[in-house]
TrEMBL record, chain A:
Modification type 4-aspartylphosphate: residues: 71
Origin species: Marinomonas aquimarina
Gene name as annotated: cheY_5
Name by which UniProt lists this protein: Chemotaxis protein CheY
Keyword Coiled coil carried by entry: yes
Superkingdom of the source species: Bacteria
Record domain Response regulatory: where: 21-140
PANTHER family: TWO-COMPONENT RESPONSE REGULATOR, TWO-COMPONENT RESPONSE REGULATOR ARR22
Coiled coil regions, renumbered to chain: 374-401
Keywords: Coiled coil, Phosphoprotein, TPR repeat
Key word Coiled coil present: yes
Pfam families for this protein: Response_reg (PF00072), TPR_12 (PF13424)
TrEMBL record, chain B:
Catalytic activity as recorded in UniProt: ATP + protein L-histidine = ADP + protein N-phospho-L-histidine
Name of the protein this chain belongs to: histidine kinase
UniProt source species: Marinomonas aquimarina
Originating gene: sasA
Topology within the bilayer: Multi-pass membrane protein
Assigned keywords, A-Z: ATP-binding, Cell membrane, Kinase, Membrane, Nucleotide-binding, Phosphoprotein, Transferase, Two-component regulatory system
Gene Ontology MF terms: ATP binding; protein histidine kinase activity
Pfam family, one: HATPase_c
EC number(s) on file: 2.7.13.3
Amino acid sequence: MDKALFQNKAAQNSSVYAGLQALVADEFENSRVSIRQMLQGLGIQQVDQTSSGKGVLESCRARRYDIILCDFRLTGGKNGQQVLEELRELKLLKPTNIFIIVSAETSRDVVMGIMESQPDEYLSKPFTQAVLARRLERQFQQSQALAKMKECLAKGKYTELIASCLQHIQEEGRYTPWCKRTLVDAFLATQQFDKLEQLCQAELSVRDLDWALLGLAKKEHHQGQTDNAITILEKLLRLFPQTISAYDLLAQCLEEMGRSDEAQSVLDDAIKISPRIHKRQKHMATVSMANGDTQSALKASQQTVRLGINSIHENPDDYIQLVDIVAESADSVESSADRKRLLNEASQALTVVGKRFADDDSVKLRKTLAESRFHAAQGQAKEAQQALKNAQQIASELEGGMPSDLVVEYGKTLYNAGEHEQAETILASLVNDQSSSSHLKQQAADFLDEPVSSSAKAQAKGLNKDGLASYSQKDYSAAIEQFKTALQYSPRHPGLNLNLVQTSLKLMEANGEQAHLVTECVEALKRLRHVSPAHKQHKRLVALKEYLMKHYKVTF
Amino acid sequence: MPKDNQLPFRNIISASVKDMRNSLGQVLYKLDTLMAHHLKDEDKYDLVDAQYEMVRMQNVINQLHGLYLIETDSLTVQPQDSYVMELIEDILASFEALLENKQIDVTVRGDDLSWYLDPQLISSVLQIILLNAIRYTNDEINIELASVEQGLMISVVDNGQGYPDAVLDSFANLVSGQTLANVSSQNSGWLYCEKVANQHKNQGHVGFTKLRNDAATGGGRIDLFIP
C-alpha cells in the first residue's frame, strides 16, 4: 500500500482501493451510511451493507470481502463478536482479510469480550474518515508484511513460521513484537521449551510483559510443572491484573492440583473482568458444581446457555448441564415463586435442546435421560421411570445400542430412578473395563463414591474437614461424631468411611476395645464394596481392613 | 442517596455514553461532509468552530466516563506493543481542519518507538493534552517523544502565555493525591490523565503526568511519562 496515498488526504483517486470489496454492518442506518460514504471517499467502489449478523454471514458466503467493518451491536440475535467467531469457524475469512469491530461500547464486559475474540482492529466510535484511512492503511501494511507468517500459523507450518519470525526480528522489522509473541506459541507447539524460555527471559530482563510471563507459565504447565506454572501466573496477575487468559490457565492448574475451591475463586475474578465468554462460564459451572456450590453453578450455567445461543458455541451439553444443576439446586431456593421459575427454565431447556438438535438421536437420548433425572430429583418417581423407559427404547433403536460416552449418564439416571443395583453393575464394569477412557472411568468412580446431591456432597466435605481438625487435635470422640454425621450425607464416600475407621482404631488403641466401635468399623468397610483395586483409596482400605481383622478378630 | 434497585446506574451510564458516542460520530461526520462542500466558504470557519466544540464534548464524555470507570475499578486496561508516533498522528489527523483553521503549527520530534501501553487509553489522554494545548497556544505546538531512563516521555509544549501559578498549584495538588478543590472540566481532565498514566507500571516504576511552564517558549508544557 502506498503511504503517500493517505498523506494526500482522503485520496479520492485511489486506484489501489478501487478494486477492493468492503462490507459495513451496523444496526443503525445512519452509521452504516456514513461509514459506507467514508469508505467510498477513500476510493472503494464496492461497499455492501447489512444490519444483522445473519446478513454478514450471508454476504460473506456470497463474496469475499477484503475489509469488513462490523459494529458490535447488530439487529437479530448475533453480535459482532459472535459473527467474527462464526466466520472463522466457517473458514469464511482469509488471513489477509481485515475484520474491524467498530463500537461505541464502553462497558468492560463488552470491550473485553470484543478483545478476546481478537479482531484485526478495534475502532471505537466516534472516528473520522482521516482516522479510518490511517487505520486501514496500517492494517493493509501489516497484513501484507505478515501474510506468509499468518498462513504458516493457520496451517501449522511451525518450522517455516519460526524461520520467518526470526528473520523479521533480525531485520528489526516493524512487526517484531508480533513475531516474538507468535514465536512463543510456535515454540510451545513444537515443544522447543529451551528456546521459549530463552526468548521470554530475555524480554523480561528488559521489562515486565504479560505475554512473556504467560509463555513461561504455559511451558511449565506443558512440562507437568504445575506448581511452577501457578507461581508464575500468580506473579503475572499481580503485575497485570487484567490478563484474562492467565486466569483461565491458573484455574485449570489449580483444578489439576485438586485445589478446586481456589480454582473457582480465580474463575470468579476472571468473570468479574470478562463475563461474556462461553468457555469461561462453562468452566465456572463445572468447577462450582464439583465444589457443591450450586448457586454459583446455576448462575454460570444459565450464562453458558445464554452465551451459546446464536453462537458457534451452542452445545446440547450446556442445556443438559443446566437441567442437572437446576434439579440439584431447586431444593435450596427459598421462595416458591423463584423455585417455580427455575423449574420452568429447566423444562424449557429440555424443550429447546429437543428442538435445536432434533436430528441427533444421541442428543434425544441424553435429553430423555436428563428428563428422568430431573423428575427423580423432584420426587416424581413415576415420571422418572417413564422417561427412563423412553430413553432405553431410544437407545435400543440406536446402532450399537447405548453409546459408550453416555454410559455414565445412563448409570446416574438409573441410580436416581431407584435402580441401584443395575446402576452399580454398569458403572463398576465401566470402571474395570480396560478399554474405556480414563476420563469416563473417573466420572463413574466419582459417582459410585458419592451418588448424592451436590449440596449433600458439600455438607459432607465440610464435616469431613471438621472431623480431620478434631483428629489432629487428638479429640477422637468428637471426630467420630463428625465423620458419622458426614456419612449421613454421603454414606459411600471412601475417604470419609476410612477416616471413621482409622479414628475408631485410634480411640480403641487408647481406651481399649469397644464393641460398638468395632461394629462401626465393620459397617463402614461394608459400605465400601464398590472400591476397586484401581481406586486411590484402595491401599488404605486394605491396610485398615487387615489391621481390624488381626487385632479385633473381625471377619469379612 | 436512596438505594433503588430499579436504577442499575452502571448500566445506565454505559448505555448513555454509548448513545452519545454514536450521536457524536454522526454529528462529526456531517460536519466533515459539510466542510468538504464549503471548502472555500467563510461558513467553513463556523463549521470548524462547531467541530472544535464537538471534539471538546467528546473529550469531556471520555474523561467523565473514564473517571467513573476508574472510581468503580472497572476500567479496561489492555497493554500491547504500540507505535506511539502512530497514536499521535491519528489524533493530529482528526484535528487537521481545526489546526489549519486556527493556524497552529504542530511539530512532532522523536523516534518511531514501539512501547508497551494501552493504546486506547493513552490516545484518550493525548487527545485531552493536545486539546488543552490547542486552546492555550499562540501558534505553535511541539510534541516530543523521547526514550528516557526507565521509560518513555511524551512532552507537549505550546507557545502561549503559560499557566498562572494558581493552575500549576492546583495541578500539583491533584497529582499528589489531594481531593479536587474547585472541580472544573480542566482539572478533572488532568486527573483522568494522571490516573491513566498511573495504570502503566513497569519493574516498580509508575507512570505520571507533570504540568509546568516551558522555560524556552514560556508556554504550557505537559509531560506524560510511561515506564
